[in-house]
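Internal tracking record. Fields below are filled automatically when a chain is submitted to the structure queue. Please do not edit lines marked as system-generated. If the sequence contains nonstandard residues, flag them in the REMARKS field before resubmitting.
Queue: standard
Priority: normal
Entity type: single polypeptide chain
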Amino acid sequence: MPIMFGRTIKRPPWRQCKVGSRDDLQVGQALNNKVMELQEQDFNFTIDTAFTKEIRVERLPKGFKMPTIEQYGGTIDPEAHLESFKFVMLFRGASRRHHVPSIPLYLEGLAKSTEWFECLKPRSVSSFVQLGRAFIANFMSSRVDRKIMANLLAIRQRSNETLRAFLTRLNSEALKVWDLDPIVKFQALRSGIRDVELKKSMIMDEPADMHNLFSRCEKHINLVEVLAAKQEKEREPEKKN
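SYSTEM-GENERATED OUTPUT FOLLOWS
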């Protein structure tokens, strides 16, 4: 009997056969059969079994180097991470099929746990969209609350808020709206501002595009600030008197 750390242990029955013996071969075959049996059941034996054969045999382009992407730890918006991941991979020349097995490489901490993979049925993932949905569903608690276009249209410039501050706030909120139509952003700006002269200018001479719109706003802001500074300077002698 083998001795380990001063203790006597018994070999399990399946280890008592000699290497290369018929019994050993039979045990090996039985283990292989068990693995195949487990893979046929409705749960993952390994992460790899969640992918279809087409995904597993897909090879990266020759000379392809995995890009440097920020690791996902489960605390930031999963959609934002996937969008960044997808953009970089496509830029490097990888197809969408190459994205699928690469996602686990960019996980860290609790997100690196395979538990959410184990919920996927064997050979159920054949596309980036399918794995992306499972990924987002698992990390839903970290998802940033997305705004809709109606939220943007409801924004109004506050009475004590400068036009510059209002534009900054509007742009910040616009970033939270998915697939924002530029026309909606224009309408939100025009309806939200309090300056009558600027609003009249937009109605009488509608800007050709967003660049033209914000360029006009910037000129108007500069004009307002110059006039305000001039008025303040003119009031200084009155204060001294």
